[in-house]
């Protein structure tokens, strides 16, 4: 019997598999598609996801494939400069297509020993006190101690669990694809710039290898969005908005997405959990979807590994829902707000002009971008000093930097006093005595996901907090 089966081999599932393997969990990833998708639905990684990669020593391989940007326009396509003084050592967006992100995370999971089986579709499940039985389309049955559904917005796992998925259905739809064009680039750029003065859902620009990425509003909402649009649909809609179809031809892939906004009522039912798009769907405004899923996996991985290992405190695994459900709810709200701001109605345009003026204030601009990039997330860990519940940026230490100490995915006590101890938890928490001019507390206890669980300098107070996140001490 496996420890954990992950249904879905996209970025969320592969990130989770890697996190679980860091702790020796036996993990099997089941992916329905026989081959990785070539569709480029996501174009980049936000600051918090970049930090996550740095925390696990993966960032250099991603930087070698992607490209750094410091561009504004991430909140409702309002074009403002990249904010100054962001609370991060990685103040940029990493432009990298989704297939590359998925491939690199899959390679990392495989290097750590995760097993991946493609062409395996989950069609049934049942659970008992000891584990979960998973049924595949070919009739095969498998057992694992836990199952995590990372199988997308139409999640089979979520449906089999009977978890409600409340929210709003799609009211509009957008066509998305990559194809060749015959119109000269300078003419395309001029036409697109004029259209985007009022229609922010429209886009057409080079994506490499002689292809153009085309984004254009559809005529309505398809009855079955799993059926891809045709090239003729793209041509017709381009002519509606631009008066020309730009000579589009030879598509590499064609797809569609809607503005449905839904959030799973629960992220956990017994031994089955949900992560990524299986738990939440929303319009791709601000490019948050893939990033939100990766960050779900980063929060869940160490908690589920602790449960498998037997040292998790009683409430640890449930804290995954409590923390990430609230984060997703906030993302859904900010995408709803962005969608309203991108409407062409007079009222929405008036609000958009007002917010555009407000974003000239540095604090407003930074607040909104930190929301989009998820570095403003604070988990509710109770009252305490400012760092409590937040992740620490990659601060420099006298010997290296903070994130260099987090590659193994363990807890970390960063101690500037030299007087503290994690005796009894040394198998789960590293104790590093070092100092940083950028850390204004005597000591900080970091969870494996980098969020601060305790600050202070009193040993007895530390001993009261260690069991909440790292279980009972080993004598």
TrEMBL record:
Annotated Gene3D superfamilies: 3.30.70.2450, 3.40.30.120, FAD/NAD(P)-binding domain
Alphabetized SUPFAM superfamilies for the sequence: FAD/NAD(P)-binding domain
Pfam families: FAD_binding_3, Rng_hyd_C
Transmembrane segment boundaries: none
GO molecular function, one term: FAD binding
Record-linked InterPro entries: FAD-bd, FAD/NAD-bd_sf, RIFMO-like
Cofactor: FAD
Flavoprotein as UniProt keyword: yes
UniProt keyword Nucleotide-binding present: no
Keyword terms: FAD, Flavoprotein
FAD-binding domain location: 2-335
Domain of life: Bacteria
Protein name: 2-polyprenyl-6-methoxyphenol hydroxylase-like FAD-dependent oxidoreductase
Biological classification of the source: Bacteria, Bacillati, Actinomycetota, Actinomycetes, Micromonosporales
